Amino acid sequence: MARPQARPLSPHLSIWKWGPHMALSILHRVTGSSLAIVGALGLVWWLTAAASGPAYYAFFLEQASSWYGYVVMVGITWAFFQHLFSGLRHFVLDVGAGYELKTNKSWSLLIPVAALFTTAAIWLSIFAGKL
Amino acid sequence: MGNGTGIGRVRGLGSAKSGTHHWINQRITAVGNLLLVLWLIFSLLQLPSLDYLAVTAWLAKSWVAVPMILMLISIFYHLRLGLQVVIEDYVHEDGTKFATLLLLNFYAIGGAALGIFAIAKIAFTGAAS
């Protein structure tokens, strides 16, 4: 397929100073991609383990309740809420709101805090329930 | 970019006329994921135990199995749309891009089918003890 090689590109990653909105934007991709691979595979693994019978499910539970199992599950929880909150920000931007510089910056700073807080609240309540 | 002329379209430039559909479906499945995954998280937190019998008995209920199946459709549809954009942004070589997108479609449909089958098996055959 013939394609013009020298098409103009807009100034890109290399020239802009990093700001919270840029970090949030790339975090949205990173968390989305990891949820799509690790999160979705983990979910399907859990369901197929439950459908495979008690012996295999016991093996699954053993992996899930190991230290690396908890690392993955806490990571997925954080990625989910990070992606959820910045996804909600996208809905706001979709209707044309929230583009004022200050508003945009404060939401971008608030979202990672909210994601960490929610993740911590959920896992602290789980670990508190186990004690 | 193609300006909508015949030759532009032949060269594969310009709009494929399916961008809005992709965009809207990504938002619809986003809302689906928002509701259904939050439902899953809070349901799991409510379960007295996550052992085999508790989980399979819970998954076998129709008001659990049906939203779980809907959730798998919503999740895998959403991740297919999302990863498609990521691939199109970062994979520039035509052959590799085609192969990666093909793999993504297999992954999304295969993963959803596997998960839905697992739920259906538990729901229809009951918890095997």
Automatic annotation (TrEMBL), chain A:
GO cellular component, one term: membrane
Keywords: Heme, Iron, Membrane, Metal-binding, Transmembrane, Transmembrane helix
Cofactor annotation remark: The heme is bound between the two transmembrane subunits.
Primary localisation category: membrane
Cofactor(s) in the UniProt record: heme
UniProt signal peptide: none
Matches recorded under InterPro entries: SQR/QFR_C/D, Succ_DH_cyt_bsu_CS, Succ_DH_cytb556, SuccDH_FuR_B_TM-su
Binding site for heme: 83
GO terms, molecular function: electron transfer activity; metal ion binding
Alphabetical GO biological process terms: tricarboxylic acid cycle
Membrane-related topology note: Multi-pass membrane protein
Membrane-spanning segments: 26-47, 67-88, 109-128
Location in the cell: Membrane
Similarity comment: family membership: Belongs to the cytochrome b560 family.
Subunit structure: Part of an enzyme complex containing four subunits: a flavoprotein, an iron-sulfur protein, plus two membrane-anchoring proteins, SdhC and SdhD. The complex can form homotrimers.
Chain's role: Membrane-anchoring subunit of succinate dehydrogenase (SDH).
Protein name: Succinate dehydrogenase cytochrome b556 subunit
Organism per entry: Sphingobium algorifonticola
Originating gene: sdhC
TrEMBL record, chain B:
UniProt-listed SUPFAM superfamilies: Fumarate reductase respiratory complex transmembrane subunits (SSF81343)
GO biological process, one term: tricarboxylic acid cycle
Compartment annotation: Cell inner membrane
Cofactor(s) needed by this chain: heme
Transmembrane segments: 28-47, 59-79, 99-124
Keywords for the protein's UniProt record, in alphabetical order: Cell inner membrane, Cell membrane, Electron transport, Heme, Iron, Membrane, Metal-binding, Transmembrane, Transmembrane helix, Transport, Tricarboxylic acid cycle
Pfam families with a match to the protein in the record: Sdh_cyt
Oligomeric and partner information: Part of an enzyme complex containing four subunits: a flavoprotein, an iron-sulfur protein, plus two membrane-anchoring proteins, SdhC and SdhD.
NCBIfam families per UniProt: succ_dehyd_anc
Function, in words: Membrane-anchoring subunit of succinate dehydrogenase (SDH).
Name the UniProt record assigns to this protein: Succinate dehydrogenase hydrophobic membrane anchor subunit
Organism phylogeny: Bacteria, Pseudomonadati, Pseudomonadota, Alphaproteobacteria, Sphingomonadales
